[in-house]
Design brief:
Helices cover 43% and strands 24% of the residues. With 336 residues, the protein is an alpha/beta fold. The chain is globular, with a radius of gyration of 21 Å.
Length: 336
């Protein structure tokens, strides 16, 4: 699968822009502030109906405008197709595949995209909520049914927290507790399966591109019966469950969240994205598009060459402020 063209309307700083891509390797070159990252973000948005940078879709709209649109034309084994995403202020997102209304699940399955971003480094170092959001998006790409469990869990969590805050009757809180445990167990199982499969591939990818082994560790926040209920009543909110789970990256068994250098964090993020790419390819039986935003900065020469060798294994779209020599001469250059 590969992306042929994309049209952006009022997306970040792109008022009305059209871009075309080579089916293998592409390099978007431009000074800082010209919209390189915004272009990659638009492709990610067309695939996942969300941004890798923000959970608020209103932030992707050009300042002064209320609506934005992304129209992607792509090719897979079944032929050409197009994806259309429209965000309207106050009206949410509408999705289309070949001019017919589609669900987020259908778009995820039809148009898989993986993105590496420098923001990944801050996500790995930052609060647990950031990594949870990243992992949630990637699990949804591998298993689209996971989205439904998340939606139902979040609704039940909101109601349970409201009941706790209002000091509702034991029976009411218990009913919401049962629902949380039901949907939470589905999320827990999906996260365990994803992490186990992911780490097998991360181990393999780590060994392919370097000497260090990068893995993702999963620490679930489990329900502890009466102890959890008592704590929740005292605090007025739910203190356990998937929304409190923790993920962390490690190098050779040691946590990177506190001690990892920026180069190590960047390599951990790259290895993670490569592993997710492999899991999606296995599930969807098509090669996801790989987006790499400023991937070469802050890496030593050896790791830059290792990453460079992987470019073009599927359609890859990179950004840079200059022409990194690692990409070779056969790459399509898009200048902003």
């Amino acid at each position: 699968m590969y992306l042929e063209k994309i049209k952006l309307v009022n997306f970040r700083n792109h008022k009305n822009k059209n871009f075309e891509f080579d089916k293998k390797a592409n390099l978007v070159v431009g000074e800082n502030g010209t919209g390189k990252t915004n272009l990659l973000e638009s492709i990610f948005f067309a695939s996942t109906t969300t941004s890798h940078r923000t959970a608020k879709c209103s932030e992707i709209v050009m300042k002064g405008e209320k609506n934005c649109a992304v129209i992607a034309e792509a090719v897979d084994s079944l032929g050409k197709f197009n994806i259309k995403m429209i965000y309207k202020y106050g009206g949410g997102i509408s999705e289309e595949i070949n001019s017919s209304r589609a669900s987020s699940k259908q778009v995820l399955e039809k148009f898989p995209v993986i993105m590496f971003s420098p923001d990944d480094i801050e996500t790995i170092k930052g609060p647990p909520s950031g990594i949870r959001r990243m992992v949630n998006i990637n699990i949804s790409q591998v298993n689209t049914g996971y989205i439904n469990s998340l939606i139902r869990y979040r609704k039940a969590l909101k109601e349970r927290n409201a009941s706790l805050k209002a000091e509702a009757a034991v029976t009411e809180i218990s009913a919401w507790t049962d629902l949380l445990k039901k949907y939470g167990s589905l999320i827990l199982e999906n996260r365990k399966v994803f992490t186990e499969k992911l780490n097998k591939v991360m181990h393999y990818e780590s060994s392919r591109i370097g000497e260090n082994i990068y893995l993702l560790e999963y620490d679930p926040s489990n329900y502890k019966g009466d102890e959890s209920v008592k704590k929740d009543r005292e605090r007025g909110y739910t203190t356990w469950g998937p929304h409190r789970d923790r993920f962390s990256f490690c190098k050779n068994g040691e946590s990177l969240s506190l001690m990892g250098s920026r180069g190590e964090l960047r390599m951990a993020a790259v290895v993670y994205r490569l592993a997710v790419w492999s899991l999606i390819r296995e599930k969807r039986e098509k090669n996801p598009i790989f987006l790499m935003d400023d991937v070469f900065s802050e890496l030593d020469e050896t790791n830059r060459k290792r990453i460079g060798r992987k470019i073009g294994e599927s359609q890859t779209i990179l950004t840079s402020t200059d022409m990194p020599h690692e990409v070779g001469e056969s790459i399509e250059v898009i200048r902003l």
